[in-house]
Amino acid sequence: MSTPFRHTEPLPPKAATGRVAEVYAQIAHDFGIAEPVTFVVLSSAPELLAPAWALMRESLIAGPGSRTGKEVAALGVSLANKCPFCVDAHTMLLHATGDHALAERLARGERPENETHARVLAWGKQTRVPGPAAQPLPFPAEHTPGYVGTALSFHFINRIVSALLTERLLPGNAQRFRPVRSLVGRSLARTVRRAARPGAALALLDDPGEGPAWAAGTAVGPAYDALRTAAMAGAGLLDAEDQALVRRTLRDWDGAHPPLALGGFPDRRERPGARLALLAALAPYRITDEDVAAWRRPEHTDHCLVHLVAYGAFAAVDRIEGSLSTHITQGAS
């Protein structure tokens, strides 16, 4: 039987207990999907699962700004990161918002007719590239926590999905057919269009901080802070030299996807941990069985691998967040 998971074997959701079961219950209620593989794949590390869900919930689902607009932003991020699984997912979720024409224009690779949606899509794509933004933010300042939190959430989720899941969102890639996209979207419509109470996911977190200034005191901030703390703990799986290499590479990264030859990446035989972390940050879809096997030792459980991938993924998110934060601060001054 085929499995959507690569490199790990998460426990079946029905076996979940404690915090993991609580997260699944909230996902089913607020996201409308009982066991989404995007979160099941993190269940080997519950300390990552809870804040990853919290950041998505508090920004995309319960944060300020229209759900349609934030889905467009998430789709733009997913396109920039070359994550077809997430592109397909957000196309179906746009159907769930009721904007069927917009969903299908984007599925065809066309520009949205609505100028605001077009600017949001372009902004979502542009967030992958650290550096000064070319244009003002395409949403009201009071919606910044929702939009920025959504973008950062999916910069993380895209990388986890690309590294640890296959590209098949539905069996047989059925989501590639318009009637299927529409049908799945309609099945989620009631949940997607229902207002969600901000802050409900914070009860799943242990002692979160206040979060960055752009979160403006909303629940998005503590969720982001908690995910950052949990993900960056994965640095402990690397020695000091490998951590320094990851930091230097991300500091100099310009948002580009690496060339096919992966020139400049550490050799898997010499520095397999650094290679995995950097691939997770810059090109998670390029992680191979050989890369994972070169790093894994008997003591490296699925929990360890998920943490190492999450560390690399969040190293990129952290770089992007710093750039976005600077732009928001400059725009406000």
Describe the protein.
The chain is mainly alpha-helical. It is built from 14 helices and no strands. The protein has helices at about 20-30, 35-40, 45-60, 65-80, 85-95, 100-105, 115-125, 145-165, 180-195, 220-230, 240-250, 270-280, 290-295, 300-330. Helix 4 (about 65-80) packs across helix 8, helix 10 (about 220-230) packs across helix 14 and helix 12 (about 270-280) crosses helix 13. The N and C termini lie far apart (about 55 Å). The relative contact order is 0.15.
Give the H and E element order: HHHHHHHHHHHHHH
Number of strands: 0
Largest sheet: none
**Low-pLDDT residue spans:** none
DSSP strand content? under 5%
User: What is the residue-mean pLDDT, rounded to a whole number?
Assistant: 93
Report the structural category.
mainly alpha
Sequence-ordered SSE layout with sheet pairings:
Layout: H1 18-31, H2 37-40, H3 46-61, H4 67-80, H5 84-97, H6 100-107, H7 115-126, H8 144-164, H9 178-193, H10 220-232, H11 240-252, H12 272-282, H13 289-295, H14 302-332
Give a quick rundown of the structure:
By secondary structure, this protein is mostly helical. The chain has helices at residues 18-31, 37-40, 46-61, 67-80, 84-97, 100-107, 115-126, 144-164, 178-193, 220-232, 240-252, 272-282, 289-295, 302-332.
